[in-house]
Each structure stands twice: as structure tokens, then as C-alpha cells.
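chain below, 93 aa
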Amino acid sequence: MDVRQVAKLAHLEISEEEVALYTPQMDEIVRYVEQLGEVDIEAIEPMLGGLTDEGKATFTLRDDETKGSLDQASALGQAPSAVAGHFRVPKVL
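prediction:
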């Protein structure tokens, strides 16, 4: 894995010292992910939810329900600052 290319894609500047530091770490991560891909999961049923502290299965499925939402006036009424129907926020650039 080319650390410079990853940094470029992430729009990061990276020094030669950082390349030397991160290259072995990236290689180790890639090897680990490849190792995970070799695990046989054919007989494992997909799981929804997780386990409680006692080891019992939990399920996170629920029915989809349509619920109301705030109208524009209500949402802007809770804002610290609003102008012309929009939230006013500090300038970022």
C-alpha cells in the first residue's frame, strides 16, 4: 500500500519521516484485513443486534413508522439566530 497515494487521496501533506513511520503500519493493517477475508463464515448465520452482559441475544428490528417532523418556523424558532428563513451560523471560510 502506497502511503503517499493514500495521503494524496485524503488531501494530506506527509513528510518522508511520516512515510517511513506509516508504511509498516499500513502494511500490517492490510495484512490483517486480508487475514480476515480468509475466515470461513459460510456456516455463520448473520446477526442482527448483539449480546447483553448475560450473553443473551438482542434484536434491533422494529417496524418503520412515519412520524411528524418540525415545520420550518418551529425549527428556526429554536435556533439562536435565523435570517430570512435560514439558520445563521458563523462564517467558516
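The chain has a mean pLDDT of 88. The first helix runs from residue 3 to 9.
thats it, cya
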